[in-house]
């Protein structure tokens, strides 16, 4: 199955098998089908709130993957995921891609609070508000496992793999950074171009005279963080 570069990148970060993988906001299910073909999930859960899309997806899955124990289709909100159907100690991977940073954060916060005793991992690919999302994720019991930066057509995507913190995988040893960390290692033209574009974005925001004092301060803080990163990469 031919999938987009963004979905290929998300797929590449799934480097081990899970008993349960939840492909949230799955749309037409291309990512989940790719993971099924790789055999990295005991059961792949396709989740979306649009009934017509899920009916079409169910038909496609029955044709391509006739062993229905391999997959389930859920027409529901991500906030209503039945994660408690799985034993708490079993690791579950929850993929949330294609939605904004604020909505992504709301989903992660809700699931962590509702299933605080479960072994959860998150693979996130937000469409915007990455800095704000990361800054909020720092306050949650999550540790960074991996992250990458890619570009597809003219759009850049940050893909972040997080694990619930534990004695084996503590936050202190694997912190989340608001501006990112691992994705800047061995920076190439891709990283430098993205960083310059991001800096330009926040510089333009600072010129917005309608911003409140609080908003102006937050923008300045974000811009300063990226300028500091740029200086570090150029040194």
- Kindly provide the name of the CATH class of the largest domain: Alpha Beta
If you average the pLDDT, what whole number results? 94
* Total strand segments: 7
Strand content: 15-25%
By DSSP (H or I, 4+ residues per run), the number of helices equals 7
Walk me through the structure:
This protein has 235 residues and is α/β, with parallel strands linked by helices. It has 2 domains: 179 residues, 3-Layer(aba) Sandwich (Rossmann fold); 46 residues. The protein is built from 7 helices and 7 strands. Strands 3-2-1-4-5-7-6 form a 7-stranded mixed β-sheet, with helices on both faces. Strand 4, helix 4 and strand 5 form a beta-alpha-beta unit. The longest helix is centred in the C-terminal third of the chain and has 22 residues. The protein is globular, with a radius of gyration of 19 Å. The N and C termini lie far apart (43 Å). The model has no long low-confidence stretch (mean pLDDT 94).
């Amino acid at each position: 199955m031919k999938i987009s570069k963004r979905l290929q990148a998300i797929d590449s970060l799934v480097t081990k098998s899970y008993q349960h993988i939840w492909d949230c906001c799955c749309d037409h299910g291309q990512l989940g089908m790719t993971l099924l073909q790789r055999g990295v999930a005991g059961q792949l859960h396709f989740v979306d709130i649009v009934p017509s899309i899920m009916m079409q997806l169910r038909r496609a899955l029955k044709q391509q993957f006739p062993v229905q124990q391999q997959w389930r289709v859920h027409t529901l909100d991500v906030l209503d995921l039945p994660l408690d159907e799985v034993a708490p100690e079993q690791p579950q991977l929850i993929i949330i891609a294609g939605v904004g940073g604020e909505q992504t954060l709301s989903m992660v916060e809700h699931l962590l609070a509702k299933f605080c005793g479960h072994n959860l991992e998150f693979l996130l690919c937000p469409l915007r508000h990455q800095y704000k999302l990361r800054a909020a994720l720092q306050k949650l019991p999550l540790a960074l496992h991996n992250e990458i930066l890619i570009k597809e057509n003219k759009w850049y995507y940050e893909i972040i793999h997080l694990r619930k913190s534990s004695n084996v995988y503590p936050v202190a040893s694997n912190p989340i950074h608001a501006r990112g960390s691992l994705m800047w290692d061995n920076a190439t033209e891709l990283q430098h171009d993205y960083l310059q574009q991001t800096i330009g974005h926040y510089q333009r925001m600072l010129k917005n005279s309608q911003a409140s004092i609080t908003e102006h301060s937050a923008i300045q803080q974000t811009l300063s963080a990226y300028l500091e990163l740029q200086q570090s990469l150029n040194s």
